[in-house]
Design goal:
6 helices, about 65% helix, single chain, globular
Length: about 100
């Protein structure tokens, strides 16, 4: 795993404790990261319909913790293709986290 991928995985894992602060425990996210790594987990989630976790984060007004918002940060965009970035933008359209 490249250095950028490792750094991305660290940021992905940091989502869990931030969510736990408001009573949400995204265990599925941690399982995906364990199974596929951070980049693989993000790609898996972007290739699937929006998750229940995305909906929960929207309800909590914390879409900044969504995988979609994370992948749109400039430092991570090289890890994803145009279609994946477009999916993330589309899901976040109309929110403060749209890239």
């Amino acid at each position: 795993m490249g250095d950028l991928s490792k750094q991305f995985e660290t940021e992905m894992r940091a989502i869990y404790p931030q969510c736990a602060k408001f009573g949400y425990h995204p265990g599925y996210l941690l399982q995906l990261i364990s199974d596929y790594g951070g980049v693989g987990a993000a790609k898996h989630l972007l290739a699937s319909p929006p998750s229940d976790g995305f909906s929960r984060l929207a309800l909590e007004q914390r879409l900044d913790l969504s995988v979609e918002a994370v992948v749109l940060k400039p430092q991570w965009q090289d890890l994803f293709d145009d279609a994946e970035l477009s999916t993330a933008r589309r899901r976040l359209k109309g929110t403060p986290y749209a890239g």
